[in-house]
Please model this.
Amino acid sequence: MPRINLLPWRAEQRAQRQRHFLTLAGAAALSMGAIVALTHFQVEQWIEDQNARNTYLDVEIAMLDKRLAEISDLEKERENLLARMRIVEQLQTSRPEVVHLFTEIVAAIPEGVFLTSIAQKDRNVTLEGLAQSNARVSSFMRSLDASPWLGTPDLKRIQASATKAEQDGKQFQFQLMIGQTNPFAPASVEGKPAQAQKAGQERKR
Model:
């Protein structure tokens, strides 16, 4: 019976399988490398696109910040202009008030009353003077109260004069305070005109 040696055939078959395995492994490695390279390229492309978008957003944000700063400056200029306009309006309104103030005070002074000092702070006026009697001071206050350009007078002090010459003439020193009003301008309290406020104060008294 002939004998067949299968060792060379098996070795060749094993070598063939190894070559096939190495070929497949090489192809898999190449495929994996290609996939990694493509993934890396895609990620890099995404990063570049995102960086481009970030740069665009940074530029737009800087432009918006600049515009906001310009708007803020314009708002400040607007507020300054409005404040100046209010001051001008107040000055225009107060000019006739000063004239009316002195006119009404002079017209209200009765006989026997002499003013020695007039002081104004904001819209309050302090009057100091001499009077021959308390009744003269009361008459003076009633005349002031009747003026539409003056508020209700408030008597702060009245006393006999300290000097002997004035005591002999029965002089009385007095101090009263009165507010300055404008019958043509609305008041800030409850939106009522100044004249209506004054009438309300008279009804309360």
In short: The longest helix spans residues 7-108. The chain has four helices and four strands. Strands lie at 113-121, 124-131, 154-160, 172-179. The chain has a mean pLDDT of 81.
